[in-house]
Amino acid sequence: MHEAPIQHVDFAPFSSLDVEQRPIQLNEQQRSVAQQLDHSIRTHGFLFLDNIGLSCSEMRHALHSAKQLFDKPLSHKLSAMKIMHTASNCGYIPQGDEILNRRRRGELKEAYHVKNRRAFAQTFEGCPPQFEAHSTALFNKLATIARRFAVACAAALQLPLEHFADMIEQSDLATLRYLHYPPCEFKEGQSNAHDPHAPIRAGEHTDYGLFSFLIADGAGLQIKPVAGGEVSDESAQSGGWLDVPVARGECVIVNTGALMARITNDTWRATAHRVVVHDESVASRSRYALAFFADPHSTTRIQVHERFLRGGQPRRYETISARDYEYGRLEEAKAK
Length: 336
Ligand SMILES: O=C(O)CCC(=O)C(=O)O
Ligand SMILES: [Fe+2]
Description:
binds fe (ii) ion; 15 strands; 336 residues; eight-stranded mixed β-sheet; five-stranded mixed β-sheet; alpha+beta; 29% helix; binds 2-oxoglutaric acid; Jelly Rolls
């Protein structure tokens, strides 16, 4: 297996950006960060973002609170916690309820979704005592960082600087996802990386929204840039997957999602990824991760921006609302 040569981008110049101020103005250093993003996203669709304004200890604390949440007995999680339904997209997702890739016979993970408290009321019954306060604070912090990142994306793509930042402000679709991949079986030569139907920790997929931040504490993430907004049968199954080196809660991994691919007419693609186990030692341990999905507000019209149609470029995607697109994909991912 090959390691992906993923670049690190230092986001420190953006930490002082006030995303509420209009007009947004960028200095030279910030414009240079935007150029680096453009390069990384065009070449891999994934990058490591350093100095985002979330310290290592905050990231480790977040991973620890995922552990505390999922450490609750299964009977408690099923009876006392709110179970996630597509309509709300928040709460607990038991193992087996979500299948990101329908060719897989199952996915070896459980998850918990936290939504924007400013956009709708979420209750946290059955969660550990500090979980509500901690996850809400983390959501708000990541949402601000995401808006700064959205400005950098707009600069990189030469769009009006507020273009993406306004779409995700107060978004009811943005989600903070806590993930736990429990220890699983490993059989040499029959790993889920090779058999396209075997159960897997997270099946081949692209994320739905504009971009995602990922914080993880263990190996297994693999990526494969694809030519469009979704994973085709061929691209998911053939070889060419690259390992993402583990960041162990030291920096954030960023990837672009399907709605970004639609708006940019695939100038920035959605990057396919999955989570596998390569060996006995990875299989024998739990893996915890957090993903923040920067998804536009549900009423946002997602259309190819005219800038990507210049010079007679064919329009690859029809206009759709963020809600219709995302709920379509959430329904697809629901185990039938
Ligand atoms: O756990 C990971 O590293 C990836 C999770 C992921 O891709 C997702 O939840 O969309
Ligand atoms: Fe993902």
